[in-house]
Amino acid sequence: MNNILITSAGRRVSLVRFFQKELKSVFAEAKVFTTDANPDYASACRISDGYFKMQRVTEPNYIDDLLQLAIENGVKIIVPTIDTELLILSKNIEVFKSKGIEVVISDYEIMKIFRDKRLTHQFFEKYGINCAKEYSKENYQLPIYIKPYDGSRSVDNFIITTQEQLTDYHFQNDKLLFLEYLDHKKHTEFTIDLYYDKNSDLKCFVPRQRIEVRDGEVNKAVTKDAFFIPEIWKKMQHIDGFRGCITFQVFVNLETQQIFGIEINPRFGGGYPLSYLAKANFPRWIIQEYMMENQGVEVFNDWEKNLMMLRYDDEILIHNFNH
Fold first, then answer.
1. In whole numbers, what is the pLDDT of the chain averaged over residues?
2. Cα(97)–Cα(99) distance, rounded to whole angstroms?
3. Global pTM value
4. Tell me, what DSSP letter sits at residue 73?
């Protein structure tokens, strides 16, 4: 069977539906399965073709159990969705591949870089992309932005504008970085959806200008034919180890037009539905590359520009549910 498994599906209803639509257009009987730590209460699991409860990634048998689940259910492609899965799954790509299962994910060495913001800054420097200056805790210039080198979802992030706001916690917590503050009022924020093929060549580049963010995920955004596309494309057109969807966040200074790399997440981001609806069809390309022999991906620039997405809450109803 040519089934797909999306792990830690949670609330990613749109992503599951996109994969269902593209998979069934090629293999009518194929299914998109999902996993979650609590799938009965995960909306994306409830709309998938079947779901499974999966232990957390920190449990010792996670890889063995996930592999067995994939084998038993005819899974050919696994699509991870959360940061905590990326390291361990990338470390075990060959384990799954030996059983005919493709984990669509970048290399382990790449994952290590983007789980550490200090290494991420080195990556930006290597590819000629500006980033916020990192200060020592003995020598810094206010205002500063403080965040953990291994953090996510804005946990333990602080904007510090006066000396009085700094506490012992900021100085004594070795995970916290002191960074140059890039004022949102002076910058435009973009999240770029990049698609890299099996050979780590860049095939698609869609900048989404953020308009509004809610709970760490974009709520309003618009696709833009941004001036920086040629410059960044040239710098990042081939990066060894990149595969599949890469989400790249940048700030652009309103006055100088200088570009600052903020972070890279080597997975589908929460705002990817806008790029898909603009015709940047990453799920189709994944199916072509990893399920259909000799089906490569051509460079695609014909996505819809100036397409705005306004999000709203929707409901998944479960009838006769016993709590």
1. 96
2. 5
3. 0.95
4. T
93 Ramachandran zone, left/alpha/beta (phi>0; psi -120 to 50): alpha
In this predicted structure, what is the pLDDT of residue 54?
96
pLDDT category of residue 322 using cuts at 50, 70 and 90:
confident
Distance of CA 180 to the CA centre of its chain: 24
170-174 CB contacts, 8 Å cutoff, 24+ apart:
170/137, 170/146, 171/137, 173/148
Burial of 35 (0-12, 13-18, 19+ CB in 10 A): buried
Q: φ and ψ at 272, to 5 degrees?
A: -55, -35
The whole-number pLDDT of residue 217 equals 85
CATH number belonging to the domain at 3-105, selected among 3.40.640.10, 1.10.760.10, 3.40.50.20, 3.40.50.2300: 3.40.50.20
- Rounded to whole angstroms, how far apart are CA atoms 110 and 89? 12
Q: Confirm or reject CATH 3.40.50.1110 for domain 184-310, answering yes or no.
A: no
Structure tokens at 81: 């969705």
Query: Distance (Å, rounded) from C-alpha 214 to C-alpha 51?
Result: 27
pLDDT in tens, 55-65: 999 999 999 99
Phi then psi for residue 278, to 5 deg, are: -90, 10
Cα–Cα nearest to 80, from 68, 94, 66: 66
Q: Fold identical between 3-105 and 184-310?
A: no
161 within 8 A of 142, measured Cβ to Cβ:
yes
Residue range 255-288, pLDDT digits in tens: 999 999 999 999 999 999 999 999 999 999 999 9
